[in-house]
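#dry-run=false #mode=assembly
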Amino acid sequence: MGVIVLLILFSLLVALIFLGAFFWAVKSGQFDDPQTPAIRMLFDNEISTSKNKSKTLRGE
Amino acid sequence: MNPSTHIAKTRCYHCGENCNEADIVWENKRFCCEGCKTVFQILDKNNLCTYYSLNEGAGIQVKNGVERKRFEYLQDLDVQHKLVDFQKGNTVSITFSIPNIHCTSCVWLLENLQNIDEGIIRGTVNFLKRTVTIVFDDTKTTLRHVVEMLTTIGYEPTLKLEQLEEEGKASVQRGLWLKLGVAGFCFGNIMLFSFPEYLKMDQSGSSDMFRLFFGGLNILLALPVLLYSGIDYLKSAWAVLSQKGINLDVPISIGMLALFGRSAYEIISGTGAGYFDSFTGFIFFLLIGKVVQKKTFDQLTFDRDYKSYLPISVIRLGQKGEKSIPVNKLEIGDHVLIRNQELVPADSVNQTENLQIDYSFITGESEPVSLRVGELVFAGGKVVGKTAELIISKKVEHSYLTQLWENESFKNSHKDKVITSFADRISPHFTFTVLGIAVLSLLVWLQIDASQAFTIFTAVLIVACPCALALSTPFTLGSVVNILAANGFYLRNTHVIESLSRTSAFVFDKTGTITEAENRSIDFVGIPLSNKEEHLVASTCKSSTHPLSKAIVEKLKRTALNNPVSYFELAGKGVHAVYPDSRVYIGSSEFLEEQNIQVTTDDSSLGYGSKVFVAIDGKYRGYFRIRHIVRKGLSNLLSDIFKPVFLLSGDNEKEKNMLLKVFPHWRKMLFDQSPSDKLDFVNTLKRKGAHVTMIGDGLNDAGALQASNFGIAVSDDKSSFSPACDGIIDATSLHSLNKFVAFSKSAFTIILFSFGFSLLYNLTGLGFAITGHLSPLVAAILMPLSSVSIMAFTTVATRIQAQKMGLKIWV
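#status=ok
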């Protein structure tokens, strides 16, 4: 039965990692603006293509 | 030939407006103006044309070219220091408020500015707040460059005087999320660890070891909830108690401490499993209530004063020519230039012949005032027409406009205005009753079984904890705020609802509140004008800068206007234009009479707005009647209010009859009211015992809004300026105001019911507690059950009530 103690401590540790992730998310401002990221994800790909283009243009 | 056939039906590639001048073309794309074309060229050059593929015609029309000198003041180190968020080495971060942000294209462009200006490291848009945070390298670009570039592409940042005086505010919301996260985390884990206890698994052999292990973990997990998540309640209770008062946080804190103390004692002494699951759950639910209550409207600001209205900079004329400087560095005696549509930053003396100043936002006068050289110009007035040259006579903070904020009403901070909430008012009774019952049962049990007495005492304190009680108010009022917002009425916070519900008198402003701020109805009364004559009238008015002439031009919708042979304007009086085959006089009746033209009017049109008289070839033809349009549904609203209604107008009586027609039962109608007259009027009403709700829109109402018990600012556009108030109402929703007040009143009936509801839970719990049957399991069931049922009851009840009253219940 002693293994249960170990398991519980381990599960608590995993949960703590998630709590830490939540802290990080709040502190990095992810909860400040719920709207813009939803818009931003729509054009993520295009940013990289246009950047590549401008880079290659400059490289030529 | 009809000139209107010339209008091209194509739309501008940049902004999507109709193109009137067909010859602005670039790379086979049409533009409505040179400004739009320039923006396209910039974006095209920098490979940013995705902007147009995201949304068609996404751009912002850039009518006026950018006046480069305007942003000179941004080179001032003091100004830079005040504006930037922070600077680390060469990296500068600054947040601009840009009202023009409106679609996905805007977000995309503003986050790809590094393609235009190499010095920019990144841009981050907050779409709800309409802000962009730009991080740039100040060795490669400058603040002034960044602002100029933003302005060139149509995203001019709002830079107002307040930014020079205020420090950035940190977000409070983050702390609340963290506290809620910790409470939720601990609550969940403690519930798991308490599970064996619920099932009475402690009969098994190794129970002591497990009990110690789980108990120890529970204490460890409950500590951060007490010391971090719930600390605000303890602090608030302590603050109130040390001032010899009691609010709802006092019984909450007593409950918290009783729960924690008793549980810790049970676990350490090995006599029980404790109530840590109830304790953490209790804090968790309370914090959810706080989150619901803290609902804010990011795009709205409720605390604006003149500083967010006045400009941040002004152009000063010095020996070295024009130079733009920050407004707070203006000195008495400085010569300044104010261009068309710009605001006068401080009281000054006019140096321009026939200067036209529009004071509508400051005083409520609807027509601009003409000023001669040497006359005083007040801060906040908007220059109309030609550029004004002024000499500053008072510093910004001593100007006539800013004096209003010196009034007593502004001295009390907004918090003092909030009356103690309903829950706080009953909490002394509640606290003393609970303590009474606890002490009584302690005494009774000391007689019956002294060993049980202390357990019973703490059990009473635990179960009487007003968790459900504390949740009723935030959840009900939180729903009310959400429902009102769905209907176009945005409240500052949940505390102000009570003020709104107690309204016993309404005071309305006229211009911009009862009537629409921008649109006016225009009709012509007299001998009908022929097509050609209308054309001449439009041509004549076109050359005048007076707003009434502009309104007439807009109404007549003529293009390809004639140029007069000679033209004469007496500012604020009238215009006289000569054409090859006719002469046109347009203006006030005095102006026409001075030209020996007989003007005839009928009295029936008196009091229905402004009139502009027209004479062609020396013959009087009639007049244009220009009236403010009364907002839709307002007549019904006013007649539905069965409380005294007052009208305060900064304007003169010229629209009195029209206003009487809209609503005949004004308790009082006052005209020519200065901003401080309005404030005094509201104070007098209050002194007579009325609970005043003031509805206004401009800075001229700022004092009255502040002095009233509940101030409502009417807004046509959420991003535009509105003075400090308790609620901002969408102009299109104003007609439902009466419903909103009734709804806010019904919210308190709902709160009363849920109080009764939660007291039932408390009584049930007390039954268990007094008889000594409050096991951790009973507490763990009773506590969340009461909280969740209160949340459900209040949310559902407010929505049913809203639906009954015909309000929208979801956004």
